[in-house]
Amino acid sequence: MSDYSKCLMYASAVGAISLSLAAGYWRGRTSLQPDIILEGLISLRKSHLHKDKVTKYIENNSFRLLQVQWKLIEETMKHPSGKLLSCPDELQLLQNLVSLIKGRKTLDIGVFTGYSALAIALVLPEDGKVVACDVNEEFARIGKPFWKEAGIDHKIDLRIAPAVETLNKLVDAGEGGTYDFAFIDADKENYLKYYELCMTLVRSGGIIAIDNVLWGDSVADPEVVDARTLVIRELNQYVYADQRVNISMLNIADGVTLCFKK
Ligand SMILES: C[S@@+](CC[C@H](N)C(=O)[O-])C[C@H]1O[C@@H](n2cnc3c(N)ncnc32)[C@H](O)[C@@H]1O
C-alpha cells in the first residue's frame, strides 16, 4: 500500500473517531449545567495558583530563545520599568503565527526596549519589515544594539511618535490591507483606535494580537472600575462582537486576544 493510501486510511479513521466523539459530546450537553461547566473551567486554571513553578517549567521545556533575546531580557530587567516587557512565551507563539502565515509586513505598537520587535523581525524574511511605534526614544535606544547584534536591525523601521499618528500616516500612504500581522501593546486608552487602524492596515487572512486583555485578571472582577480596566473590558466586548474577525482570547501572560481577519 502506498504512503498516500496509508495517509488517507489514517485520516478517515481519525475523522470517524472525531465525529463519534463530537456526537457524544453534544449528546452529553443537551441540558447545560453552568455551575458544572464553570467549575471545570476554574479547575483548568488551577495551575495559575502555582504560577512561579509553572512559569519555570514552561521556560525549561519550551522557550527557544536566542542568546541575544536573553541578553535583551536581562538588560530590560535592570530598567526601573522592566515589568513592561512582553512575555517571551507569548512572543514565541506570535513568532510561530507570523511564520505560519508567511508574514512579511508587520506592526509593533508599543516597542519599549524592543523585545517584541526583535522577536517578530527574527522570523521575517530578509525583505520583511516591522513598523515599530513608540513615543519614548529612550526605551528603544536600549534595544537597538540587540537588534544590530541579532542582524535584524535593517528590518525594523522605528517611528517615534504617537502610534495613532504613525498608523494614520500608513493608511494615508495607501498601505491599507497590506500588513500581515500587528501586535497591539501600547497605551490602553487608545486600544480601540489601534484595533480599528489595524483592521484597516492588516490584510484579510492576517492576524492582530492584542496584549493585556485580562489586565491582571481585573476585567473579570466587576468591582474593579478604574479607567484602564473599563477601556479593556469595552474593547474585549467590541472584539467579541466583531464579525469581521475570528478570535481566540488566551490566558497566557496578561491575556492576549488573537484576531484572525476574515
Ligand atoms: C508594555 S510596553 C511595550 C512592551 C513591548 N511590546 C515589549 O516587547 O517589551 C508599552 C509601550 O507603549 C509605549 N506607548 C505609550 N503610549 C504610546 C503612544 N501613544 N504611542 C506609541 N507608544 C506608546 C510606551 O512608551 C511603552 O514603551
TrEMBL record:
Specify the superkingdom.
Eukaryota
Q: What InterPro entries does the record tag this protein with?
A: Cation-dep_OMT, SAM-dependent_MTases_sf, SAM_O-MeTrfase
Transmembrane segments in this chain: where?
none
Q: Name one Pfam family in it.
A: Methyltransf_3
GO molecular function terms attached to this record: O-methyltransferase activity; S-adenosylmethionine-dependent methyltransferase activity
A single Gene Ontology biological process assigned to it is: methylation
SUPFAM superfamilies per the UniProt record, alphabetical? S-adenosyl-L-methionine-dependent methyltransferases (SSF53335)
For this UniProt record, the keywords arranged alphabetically read as follows: Methyltransferase, S-adenosyl-L-methionine, Transferase
The Swiss-Prot or TrEMBL record describes its family as follows: Belongs to the class I-like SAM-binding methyltransferase superfamily. Cation-dependent O-methyltransferase family.
Name of the protein described by the UniProt record: Probable caffeoyl-CoA O-methyltransferase 2
